[in-house]
Amino acid sequence: MSSGKLITQREMARQNGIVQPLLTDLYQITMAYAYWKSGKVNDVAVFDLFFRTNPFQGEFTIFAGLEECLKFLENFHYSDSDIEYLKQTLPSDIEQEFFDYLKDLTCNDVKLSAIEEGSVVFPRVPLLRIEGPLIITQLLETTLLTLVNFASLMATNAARYRMVAGKNISLLEFGLRRAQGPDGGLSASKYSYIGGFDGTSNVLAGKMFNIPVKGTHAHSFVTSFSTLDDLQNVSVTHPETKAQCNLFQLSLDWRKKLSMIIGVSPEEASDGELAALISYAQAFPSGFLALVDTYDVKRSGLLNFCSVALALNDCGHRALGVRIDSGDLAYLSILARDTFRQVAESCQLPWFNDLTIVASNDINEETILSLHEQGHAIDCFGIGTHLVTCQRQPALGCVYKLVEINGQPRIKLSQDVAKVTIPGHKEAYRLFGADGHALVDLLQRSNERPPAVGRKVLCRHPFQEAKRAYVIPSKVEHLYKVYWSEGRICTAPKPLSEVRERVQASLRTLRQDIKRNLNPTPYKVAVSDDLYNFIHDLWLQNAPIGELS
Ligand SMILES: Nc1ncnc2c1ncn2[C@@H]1O[C@H](COP(=O)(O)OP(=O)(O)OP(=O)(O)O)[C@@H](O)[C@H]1O
Ligand SMILES: O=P(O)(O)OC[C@H]1O[C@H](OP(=O)(O)OP(=O)(O)O)[C@H](O)[C@@H]1O
Ligand SMILES: O=C(O)c1cccnc1
Ligand SMILES: [Mg+2]
Q1: In angstroms, how far apart are the furthest CA atoms of the chain?
Q2: Is the ipTM of this complex over 0.90?
Q3: What is the pTM assigned to this prediction?
């Protein structure tokens, strides 16, 4: 077995079973037949996969999904039942030999070069360059796009949440129930983690991708208890003395004492909620993080939580904190923190100051920014719907365009200049300025001399003649590595935790004004002088000359 295969099996989670060659658009297969019929089996193509606009009104994107693309290439194979299905589905006059051809088709002759997963990337710079026989490289289009588009959108969304939250707030992904189906949910958990989330409530994602799984409990757990009579046998073992502590009685005693300290009457607090919290604390004495907004945070939830937390303390355990899932999260989190301070002081338990306050409920980037502006005491956000559905922008528009065939460049023209493709086999370089920030991404023809540190290079806007600048880079990063060649993974994709670190490291190379939330400055993507002339010559050659009458 090749070392590439060894690397793959050791480090990569198994690919979701629905990612397979038939997970594509029908037209890829009909085109494959037409290519085959036209004798194009030996034609060699180069495709670029890129996007044209950054999502979320931002000026950067995080590239993700590469590992899954590599697994797809590795496993690419039409099964007998796939072939059978195609025979039944395609017109009956399709030649049998085409199916024999498909049956033996693999990605062994494909070469895939890519930017490192987790990097910041920009419009027009190909994320993937796919070279190889026209038919197979064409057949890969839709699946590669579906693997990169949502992954990159999701990682970008998560990275944006991380940026607005700041590095000291913990972010948990709670979105599975609201996600675009099971696979959407699983991908959302994986790529939120890459983008900078700290954990997920999605247990399967935890198992498959080794992401920390975290969570609290739901309102239904609280509302399922109505009185203290609902409780039976509530004792907790003290971890040191091994004594059995009566959590129930201790909690009731503390509720009486505490009501004086925090000025809330025990009569107003819900007994059902207290019963629920005692029950949860009994089950998880060292992991007690309770939902406190079922009835009333101020008059019930906080009093009940603190009572049980102090009872647990008597039993030798430290509570973790609270979750607030409705109401004014700024006000209620500050109220919770003030209450914890009062308890910390009057009971001489300094750790009570540091209890975790989790906030959830329809959180998005704007809510976090607004909460920061108002002031709050939240340590952790649990975020579902807006994050996993990418509600602010539900799709990234990556496309897959033919740029060369049999050594001949190809250009796709459009009335809309932004949609004209940049032809030919190209390399991409990131040029850094003297202060260490990335200045510009430069596309060149592959036969050009690479840019070098300290050497002046002319960077041109691909379509606006007057826009050009000289750059003397202090560092040059060649953006492509070959990840797949000769039928194997030749650069091992990094483990998720490293891709996650890469995202933050890569974001640090961008100037702050490119990352800011409101009206960020666009990052420059340029072409070399040589590529500029090449594009425009080809454009002239291909644009028909109209006739005025
Ligand atoms: N201080 C705040 N500043 C800005 N937005 C906030 C603040 N507190 C909460 N929010 C947001 O306001 C919205 C409030 O949601 P909604 O109107 O459904 O109220 P609710 O508190 O959930 O009501 P209910 O008690 O009926 O569940 C949520 O999206 C929440 O994230
Ligand atoms: O609000 P999101 O960002 O999507 O986060 C996840 C939500 O899911 C849970 O409850 P759910 O919304 O199912 O019920 P609830 O509205 O009654 O809390 C949780 O309490 C959050 O509110
Ligand atoms: O664990 C939680 O608190 C949680 C999980 C999923 C959705 N809402 C909340
Ligand atoms: Mg909700």
Answers
A1: 100
A2: yes
A3: 0.96
